[in-house]
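TICKET: design request
STATUS: open
ATTACHED STRUCTURE:
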């Protein structure tokens, strides 16, 4: 019986075997990533949650990205079984790509390939081209035992019935002859690299090694596809579908549905000698080698506290662009950044997390991204203890006044080293914002670092006027000029990134501010659910005619001229549409922020209501 399950999953989940089967694998992935040094040794390099119960994953052994997508779950006689489809999206530069089909190679060389991989669950074509096997998780509620299985063919063979022809420089070239092999992929060997990391993470999180191992197989197939999309499968005597299963919590395998045709070639249980083929696998160790004394800061007794940066700036100034560059810089130096984001008017997301004051929305190689869902003080405390980051960046909404939460942050001085209040200013709109909005002025007054963003093409006279306005409000802050949020972290915060300001100094300056809020200036947001596609020309025309009191618009939308979906971004004087995944799930919507918003956004609201 597994003793650690009740520390990994909440009681409400443990009471439902089917929930355990579907939730345990994702929870183990996230738990294994909590401590940066541990996740490095386990082999993790990034985990991102995708729509429709999916995860995109980077591991140390592979250049490409694995994808894991929950297919479904069943329950019978106290046992629950969950199935996850497994994908591998090779890097365009790695040798594995050559083993995939011609169509897969073409897809991998497209400019938007890696972008789509991060949301692979919304792209059926990618799922078809890069599927390599399955993970299966079985939970025995009576014995509190868990079994994890990898199911994949040793050779995944595709034959093109009609051949494959590609066009180059207006010439057609046949690259696969009719009836020849288009793909021959060693899918089990590829998938095993990911299975090792997952299995080792299970042992780490459950704090015990597997007690049973079983490897079995059945005769597999090769697949013949036609131009008319017909797909045939024929038994292939040289192809094996291999099932490798590890069991934690009991010394015998858990019964599996549809396993009657499997032949077993390795069967092991504790405490007998481990099978030679798998004797050196890391999953046999419940403790991470080297982590106890050289990775976990708490275990090592390291008292170095994370550096805190409060990142603020008026709506649309470019805070997120700066963050992306900052994370990239730190990741290259093996530093880990925790980001706490809180946005006014953000469309709600169901995080499925219980008892936390934040929700982890992404855990990538250089950072975790969290959405604030409760007390900032409690959220920061939980993130610091759970993830042990090197930096914590609190990215505020563009309408937030830092003065309103610095006192709360000050109560965490024993856990955080205050580094900076960094304010980003849009050089094209900053002067107007400072003139009109008290919140924008106080963001500048409290800052020690000011990033004047989007300066490219701005007349010198206009930049000088904005600089003078900033210096009038805050003569002590250092002003940096740049574009696309690209600023040098050492130049901003010093070579050791310790910052140039003390929290006590900021608290003193709070007393000189008026603590403006967006509510005091009649600024609010509305969420517009888009029930039908809009007339594109009419929408864009109305958007360009909006009052400057409409400060920000963002959302996802469709138009009547095609079936594509778009991200829409608007700030006064500028807006853009960016195509997104055709099959992106969820509703179309717009979040509109501004003064007296119902009145000033009325022309656009009439279009969306039509």
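STATUS: resolved
RESOLUTION: sequence designed for all positions
ATTACHED SEQUENCE:
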């Amino acid at each position: 019986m597994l003793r650690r399950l009740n520390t990994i999953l909440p009681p409400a989940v443990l009471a439902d075997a089917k929930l355990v089967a579907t939730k345990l694998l994702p929870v183990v992935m996230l738990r294994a990533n909590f401590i940066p040094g541990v996740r490095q040794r386990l082999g993790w390099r990034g985990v991102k949650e995708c729509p429709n119960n999916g995860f995109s994953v980077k591991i140390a052994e592979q250049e490409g990205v694995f994808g894991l997508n929950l297919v479904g779950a069943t329950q019978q006689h106290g046992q629950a079984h969950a199935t996850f489809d497994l994908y591998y999206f090779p890097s365009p530069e790695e040798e594995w790509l050559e083993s995939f089909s011609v169509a897969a190679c073409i897809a991998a060389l497209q400019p938007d390939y890696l972008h789509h991989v991060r949301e692979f669950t919304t792209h059926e074509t990618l799922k078809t081209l890069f599927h390599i096997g399955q993970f299966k998780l079985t939970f025995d509620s009576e014995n509190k035992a868990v079994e994890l299985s990898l199911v994949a063919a040793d050779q995944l063979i595709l034959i093109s019935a009609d051949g494959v022809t590609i066009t180059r420089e207006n010439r057609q070239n046949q690259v696969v002859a009719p009836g020849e092999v288009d793909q021959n992929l060693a899918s089990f060997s590829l998938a095993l690299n990911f299975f090792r990391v997952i299995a080792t993470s299970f042992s780490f999180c459950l704090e015990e090694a597997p007690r049973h191992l079983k490897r079995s197989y059945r005769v597999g197939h090769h697949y013949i596809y036609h131009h008319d999309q017909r797909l045939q499968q024929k038994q292939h005597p040289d192809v094996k579908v291999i099932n490798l299963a590890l069991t934690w919590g009991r010394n015998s395998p858990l019964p599996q549905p549809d396993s009657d045709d499997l032949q077993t070639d390795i069967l092991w249980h504790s405490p007998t000698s481990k099978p030679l083929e798998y004797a050196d696998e890391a999953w046999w160790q419940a403790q991470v080698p080297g982590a106890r004394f050289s990775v976990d800061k708490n275990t090592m007794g390291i008292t170095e506290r994370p550096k805190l940066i409060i990142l603020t700036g008026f709506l649309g100034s470019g805070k997120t662009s700066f963050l992306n560059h900052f994370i990239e810089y730190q990741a290259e130096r093996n530093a880990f950044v925790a980001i706490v984001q809180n946005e006014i008017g953000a469309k709600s997301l169901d995080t499925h997390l219980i008892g936390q004051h934040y929700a982890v929305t992404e855990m990538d190689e250089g950072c975790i991204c969290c959405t604030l869902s409760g007390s900032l003080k409690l959220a920061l405390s939980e993130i610091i203890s759970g993830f042990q980051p090197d930096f914590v960046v609190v990215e505020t909404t563009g309408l937030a006044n830092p003065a309103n939460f610095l006192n709360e942050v000050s109560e965490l001085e024993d856990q955080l080293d205050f580094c900076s209040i960094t304010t980003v200013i849009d050089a094209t709109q900053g002067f107007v914002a400072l003139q009109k909005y008290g919140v924008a002025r106080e963001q500048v007054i409290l800052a020690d670092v000011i990033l004047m963003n989007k300066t490219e093409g701005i007349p010198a006279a206009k930049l000088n006027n904005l600089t003078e306005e900033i210096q009038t409000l805050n003569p002590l802050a250092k002003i940096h000029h740049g574009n696309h949020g690209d600023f040098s972290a050492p130049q901003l915060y010093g070579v050791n990134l310790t910052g140039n300001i003390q929290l006590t100094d900021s608290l003193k300056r709070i007393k000189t501010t008026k603590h403006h809020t967006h509510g005091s200036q009649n600024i609010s947001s509305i969420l517009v659910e888009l029930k039908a596609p809009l007339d594109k020309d009419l929408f864009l025309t109305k958007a360009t005619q909006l009052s400057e009191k409409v400060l920000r618009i963002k959302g996802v939308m469709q138009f009547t001229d095609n079936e594509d979906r778009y991200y829409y971004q608007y700030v006064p004087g500028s807006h853009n549409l960016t195509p997104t995944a055709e099959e992106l799930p969820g509703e179309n919507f717009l979040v509109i922020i501004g003064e007296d918003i119902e009145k000033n956004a009325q022309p656009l609201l009439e279009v969306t209501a039509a």
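CLOSING REMARK: The radius of gyration is 27 Å. The domain at 522-609 is CATH 3.30.1220.10 (Hypothetical Protein Yjia; Chain: A;domain 2).
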